[in-house]
Design brief:
2 copies of one chain form a homodimer. By secondary structure, the first copy, chain A, is of the alpha/beta class. The first copy, chain A, folds into 3 domains: 4-47, 434 Repressor (Amino-terminal Domain); 61-163 and 299-325, Rossmann fold (3-Layer(aba) Sandwich), CATH 3.40.50; 165-296 and 328-334, Rossmann fold (3-Layer(aba) Sandwich), CATH 3.40.50.2300. Helix content of chain A is 42%, strand content 17%. The first copy, chain A, has helices at 4-11, 15-22, 30-42, 49-56, 77-92, 111-117, 133-141, 165-178, 194-209, 226-237, 251-263, 297-313, and strands at residues 61-66, 96-101, 105-106, 109-110, 124-127, 146-149, 160-163, 184-188, 219-221, 245-248, 273-277, 291-295, 321-324, 326-329. The termini of chain A are far apart. Chain A binds a DNA duplex through residues 3-5, 13-20, 22-23, 27-29, 32, 47-48, 50-57.
DNA sequence: TTGAAAGCGCTAACAA
DNA sequence: TTGTTAGCGCTTTCAA
């Protein structure tokens, strides 16, 4: 395995010259560069990342924090799409991406301490579920660069990127109105969760914008299973003046919603329209396929990683937030013959 | 940020003594150890991983290779469960887990070369889809430790861990027979895929073991979408002597199978029983919920990582293969009133 | 435009 | 049981 010294000797130059070429230092004559590059290729030389890291005092890695126990985040297909986006950007910059489970404890220390103090990584990306006061405090204590994906529910201003859930809620209403629905209900998980709250706010924005009146009893909240969706929709259907459309913030719950409607002998989309959030994994598989508010989660990852690198390059830059646009994917569940 | 030198000075010992304590070298008196450990704690000392890596000539990381473009593997919930298992073991050993997309090219080199020659990682875990001749060749060229998860379709003997798909196929038949089904069909993706082939072989084993005769026309092959399942089951239903049960190797296809049966006015599980492979993401959400051949994918990750560490510790050890048992999760789709 | 040499923080062979 | 010292392979300052 060739080292920088071998290259230097073989090329008849000093190691500093080789180093400058590795680092694309412009103060090198074209001919020297050519000569050395050729030797590097001949010797199959690749700089030793450990030595580089030590000398540079940076590990050339960034870390994606996960909470492996948390089914809602880790065991979620979106998560991996985000990871894919992050990974793309990280390797473009010639760094490695480390995955670290925040549950892990190493030698009685939090993995955060271990990574930061051990100089294993230059920056950290956290899902909002991990943007806890404790973690934030620890990161700030070390003035360590980090970015959150998903809007964090934190009193401190943070750097984060999220999809525009509020816009998504509004688009859902707009779409339904355009399809001729007027009595639009809303089913979500707990609105204490920020993304549910934002989707809800967007729903209300949408109603207002379309001259429709918001009704408390049309906005159901809580739950995340198919059974929950079934029950919640059941309640809505039992109203005297039942809704003619429903927006559901969870694709799994949506299946329950759909079932409740069909069980009641009503037809989707004719009697009732459904818009679900989050296309994957099941909206397409439902019968009929569900119209969704879809989201570019890959882009979420890309932008998160970019924000982190900006922060690493310029630690004093201002706090930043980015929202990524959502988009309606119209399918059968709202294709009402007008 | 305290270094080993700071600790040494503060404790009135040499750096080698501190180093020995870090590395739990037994040749240190108890009192010295106590003294130094206390100083380490006081100074908040954590060994610099980059320096350690350089000095030890190992990066203290292992890599999980992914193919981010390959929806079938990367964008698959199982994958992340496997990752979780791997991650657990890796951090127990105080190493980091790197994620590397094999699609990535860095400075015109394959990421494999970049990782290996750059000494960024000590070992690699590959999904079987990435155990290509090219990758294997490159890894072997460097005598680099690697383990595959999922049985690879490779002429070379490799170290791998997989779930016991063949056993799963057999269990599916056993279960159906126990529920009183006799005319058992089999629907899978292409049997050129090893896992489908193994499930198929298990199916045949199961038939034989239960004294049933294998019929070509009961074994459909190819496809992976809901629509494929619908079509393939349609064909089976049109047979004069249609099956009274079906094993489907893909949970998404299973939804199509279910739909075909219901469309034909037949009932599940009364007229026809269904066993699907792979519980997540949809088998539970189907109506009725599907009996599945379920698999401990977390364990798959754990065992894969363990195998890798064995290999790293002992590079000359024999090739090894491990199969993890499968298990029937009985649900409504096979609960036939006998 | 290039080279000599010190240093990044740790480990380990050797000596005591 | 502990200390001295020479690296590990790279970067970078300073001098030429």
């Amino acid at each position: 395995m060739a080292s920088i010294k071998d290259v230097a000797i073989a090329a008849g130059v000093s190691t500093s010259t080789v180093s400058r070429i590795i680092n694309e230092n412009p103060a090198i004559s074209a001919e020297t560069r050519e000569k050395v590059l050729k030797v590097m290729k001949d010797l199959d030389y690749v700089p030793n990342s450990m030595a580089r890291a030590l000398s540079n005092q940076r590990a050339f890695t960034v870390t994606l924090a996960i909470n492996a126990e948390d089914v809602k985040s880790f065991n979620n297909p979106f998560f991996y799409e985000v990871m894919h986006g992050i990974e793309k950007v990280v390797y473009q910059k010639d760094l490695c991406l480390i995955i670290a489970n925040m549950q892990t404890v190493i030698k009685k220390e939090s993995i955060l301490t271990w990574l930061i103090n051990g100089k294993r990584t230059q920056g950290i990306i956290l899902p909002s579920s991990l943007a806890t006061e404790k973690n934030i405090k620890e990161l700030n204590k070390h003035h360590f660069p980090f970015v959150v994906f998903g809007e964090p529910d934190s009193p401190d201003p943070l750097n984060w990127v999220d999809v525009n859930n509020r816009q998504g809620g509004q688009q859902a209403v707009d779409h339904l109105v355009k399809q001729g629905y007027r009595r639009i209900a809303f089913i979500s998980g707990s609105r204490k969760e920020l993304f549910n709250k934002n989707r809800f706010l967007g729903y209300r924005d949408g109603l207002e914008r379309n001259g429709l009146t918001f009704r408390e009893d049309f906005a159901a909240e809580g739950g995340n299973t198919k059974a929950d969706g079934l029950a919640m929709m059941g309640t809505l259907l039992s109203l005297d003046d039942r809704p003619d459309a429903v927006i559901c913030t969870d694709s799994i719950m949506s299946l329950g919603v759909l079932k409740a409607i069909q069980k009641a002998g009503l037809s989707v989309p004719h009697d009732i329209g459904i818009v679900s959030f989050d296309n994957y994994p099941v909206a397409d598989l439902a019968d009929p396929p569900l119209t969704t508010v879809d989201v570019d989660v890959y882009e979420l990852g890309v932008q998160t990683a970019n924000m982190l690198f900006k922060l690493i390059d310029n630690p004093l830059s201002r706090q930043q937030q980015t929202l990524i646009a959502t988009e309606i994917q119209a399918k059968e569940s709202t294709m009402r013959a007008k």
